[in-house]
Amino acid sequence: MIYSASFKMSTPSDREIQVTRVFDAPRDLVFEAFTKPELVKRWLLGPPGWSMPLCEIDLKVGGAYRYLWHNDSDGREMGLNGVFREIVSPKLLVATENPTWYSSESLDTTSFVEEGDVTRMTITVLYQSTEVRDAALRSGMDRGMAMSYDRLEELMSSIHAA
Amino acid sequence: MELSGYASFSPSRLDATFAALADPTRRAILARLASGEASVSELTAPFAMSQPAISKHLRVLESAGLIIREREAQRRPSRLDAKPLAEACQWLAEYRQFWESSFQQLDALLDELKTKRKKDKKRKHKKH
Fold this sequence. Notes:
The structure holds two protein chains of two kinds. Helices cover 24% and strands 41% of the residues of chain A. By secondary structure, chain A is of the alpha+beta class. Chain A has a single domain (4-161), classed as Alpha-D-Glucose-1,6-Bisphosphate, Chain A, domain 4, CATH 3.30.530.20. Chain A has an eight-stranded antiparallel sheet. In chain A, a hairpin with a 6-residue loop joins β6 (92-99) and β7. Chain B is mainly alpha-helical. Chain B has a domain at 10-81: Orthogonal Bundle (Arc Repressor Mutant, subunit A), CATH 1.10.10. Helices cover 66% and strands 5% of the residues of chain B. Chain B has helices at 11-21, 24-33, 40-44, 51-63, 83-127; strands at 67-69, 78-80. Chain B is rod-shaped and about 90 Å long. Chains A and B meet through β2, α1, α2 and α4 of A and α1, α2 and α5 of B.
């Protein structure tokens, strides 16, 4: 796992969260692994113990995707649905994201960039629920994922140190 | 259906936590309260800000559940409630763990796909 160190999570703006990672494979293979259901259900599984009994991807603009995860040890389930807004194979995917546990919708932009023989994948999640937007308009304050992971960690460590 | 992982956290509470933490003054107030309770005037002292401005920040922190303000005492000291902060941290840690674990499985899958592609190419060459 030489490329696991390339994993980075950050917050480029008050409404975004970004995840990036390098994979030791040509770009078209990485794109396939992100867009073919029979491949996606083999890796998009999170920590051990989860499986993906439902993985449907209608890869076209306006097409939907539906994911359902199942915890094999205790039966817990969580789902994710969305619609593709833009597809530039094998470079870019833009899709909405509606988790079953969260009332707000976000917009996910996934880019695949060739870096020599390897591929850098970057997912940017932009939070933009009506709820969040209205609250921001009323209060004049940015809501949502409004601070960086680093800043939160920094604050937590200062609190633990005290 | 019982939700799991970061699904178990209350989204509105997480929103409130992150929004409250977005401001540098409010983070500084929390860091100060980490060393013990303080009154509004004690909290105002280190900042180039009026007491009403600091009170406004305290109200945001209070409604996000990050601090608790005494009602009875004259000086109404504020103190930190670390639980929502810990929840926010936990949520981010689980989000990170989800992706890191998934990407390691993707590494293995991509290796398999690359090997398969090489074999397919060789087979094609043999046919010609």
